[in-house]
Write a structure and sequence with these properties.
The chain has about 500 residues and is mostly helical. It is built from 21 helices and 4 strands. It has a two-stranded antiparallel ribbon. A two-stranded antiparallel sheet has the order 3-4. The longest helix has 28 residues, at about 175-205. The two termini are about 35 Å apart.
Length: about 500
């Protein structure tokens, strides 16, 4: 038994021994039998609770850290290596090819993961998997149709590995609710480490994290916002830092520790939100705000079974109202309030207008690597992750990708999970994924953070594998102050001995 399990076993035994409910039983033999039954019941409950999340007992911070380390030790090593490689601020050149650490990990794992998936060792092949494969395959075809094959061999390989390979890594390495809870713990611990580094970088104006790594990548100084430097920590750009940490918002509230109290959730959420805000990235802040809205809605309307249906209809009604009574389109209104300046908002509107024109001009195979048509005063940057996929690879690749995301959200949402902690993990996954997906309309995810977004999509598919099974009981209270273990010891039997 692990140290955490031994600690629980001792705690449960001591609690039952102190209670001594067998004193009310008459007869020495009866008392002895009742005593043993109670101790055995406490031991069984403690052993069963060994696999559950552990909340920090008051005044036992060291014990909590030790238990957390025990839980994290079981995380599939492929996922943790990839997460570390995302933050490694170094580059390696192999001739003309620039090999980033995360890219080398994906290259090494691509075929083993693909074989494992095709053999069914990661569960059945689902429709969303086929849609993701189709999107990646169509992108390869689009590049081949727009350029000579000799010129696009490297871009084809990089896109396939970073798109479908990253998705497969999350899909194969996270195979259960227990795996996902450990993944959520590691994500929060990474955000906790990044928090002081981001704070120091923003306040002092120096790339503290990159200075700690010899021969690291160059820092990006794109100006200050609100008097603070835009923190990038170990990442190649502040947007990457903000997007990575913003995915932890939903995980910190729902998935990190189901049995923790309300104040523990608030503290974790505050750390993650402040760490995200130090990036001063409108896309990351939008992802964070969306997740906070989702959490607030769940917190207020949790008892209502149709709360998310109501939320969807309210969004539709809001769109119609803005479209009817505003002189601007709903997209223009959202972009105007989601950016730091009117100039940035106007630029994103121009990107949408001219970008969609390029899509309609090349709907089947897109532009490939060719430059897009736009006014000379606009830069080549496209601050819209979803639009750029349609521009580069055509509508079939883009629509298949979006259909896969919608299918993942639907099947994960409706999966009949019976374990309460698995349901909390599902809630954290859906909230975090929703924030990142919606924020992608105002920012581009490229290189490492783009691969991470695809990896994160795959980490929740474990829940979709039970889609179509018999329905489970109603969702538990995922937002209540639950300071005790969800599993309580069985009450002692009141039957008198024969």
């Amino acid at each position: 038994m692990s140290d955490a399990g031994a600690y629980r076993l001792t705690r449960e035994r001591n609690r039952h021994v102190r209670a001594r409910p067998w004193k009310n039983v008459k007869g020495q033999a009866g008392r002895g039998q009742a005593k043993q039954e109670v101790i055995d019941a406490g031991a069984d409950q403690a052993a069963a609770a060994e696999t559950r999340p552990i909340s920090a007992p008051p005044g036992k911070a060291a014990q909590f850290i030790k238990q957390t380390a025990v839980r994290v030790a079981g995380l599939p090593w492929l996922a943790i290596i990839f997460m570390i490689s995302i933050m490694a601020p170094i580059t390696v050149r192999a001739g003309p090819v620039l090999l980033l650490p995360y890219r080398m990990v994906l290259l090494a794992l691509f075929f083993p993961l693909l074989i494992r998936w095709l053999m069914g060792k990661a569960g059945p092949i689902l429709l969303m998997d086929k849609l993701m494969m189709f999107s990646a395959g169509w992108a390869v075809l689009a590049l081949a149709m727009n350029h000579p094959l000799g010129q696009v061999i490297e871009p084809i390989g990089i896109h396939t590995v970073e798109f479908f390979g990253a998705y497969m890594l999350g899909r194969v390495s996270i195979q259960s609710g227990a795996d996902f809870r450990k993944f959520a713990r590691v994500m929060f611990l990474i955000a906790l480490v990044l928090f002081p580094l981001a704070a120091l970088e923003s306040v002092t104006g120096r790339p503290i994290a990159l200075d700690l790594v010899p021969n690291s990548i160059s820092h990006v100084n794109i100006g200050a916002r609100w008097g603070l430097r835009r923190a990038q920590t170990f990442f190649s750009h502040p947007i990457h830092h903000g997007t990575f940490v913003s995915t932890v918002v939903g995980l910190a509230w729902f998935s990190f520790n189901y049995s923790s109290g309300f104040m523990g959730r608030v503290i974790r959420l505050g750390v993650v939100c402040v760490c995200t805000a130090f990036s001063m990235s409108s896309g990351a802040l939008m992802a964070m705000v969306f997740q906070l809205i989702f959490i607030g809605w769940e917190l207020v309307l949790r008892p209502h079974p149709k709360r998310w249906t109501i939320f969807a209809w309210l969004c539709v009604a809001g769109y119609v109202v803005v479209d009817l009574f505003s002189s601007r389109t709903p997209f223009h209104v959202v972009v105007n309030y989601a950016t730091f300046s009117s100039g940035s908002a106007y630029n994103r509107i121009l990107i949408w207008n001219y970008g969609t024109d390029n899509v309609w001009a090349n709907p089947l195979f897109g532009l490939g690597l060719n430059d897009w048509i736009r006014p000379s005063y606009m830069s080549s940057s496209v601050d819209n992750f979803w639009l750029l996929i349609a521009m580069k690879y055509g509508l079939p690749a883009s629509l298949a990708f979006m259909a896969a995301i919608l299918l993942i959200v639907r099947r994960v949402s409706l999966a009949p999970l019976t374990d309460l902690v698995d349901r909390a993990g599902r809630a954290g996954y859906l909230v975090s994924l929703g924030g990142v997906v919606l924020a992608g309309a105002t920012v581009h995810y490229w290189h490492g953070i783009g691969a991470f977004v695809l990896f994160f999509m795959g980490t929740g598919v474990w829940a979709a594998q039970s889609f179509g099974a018999p329905p489970a009981p109603p969702d538990p209270d995922l937002t209540t102050d639950a300071t005790t273990d969800p599993v309580k010891p069985a009450p002692p039997s009141r039957r008198r001995p024969a």
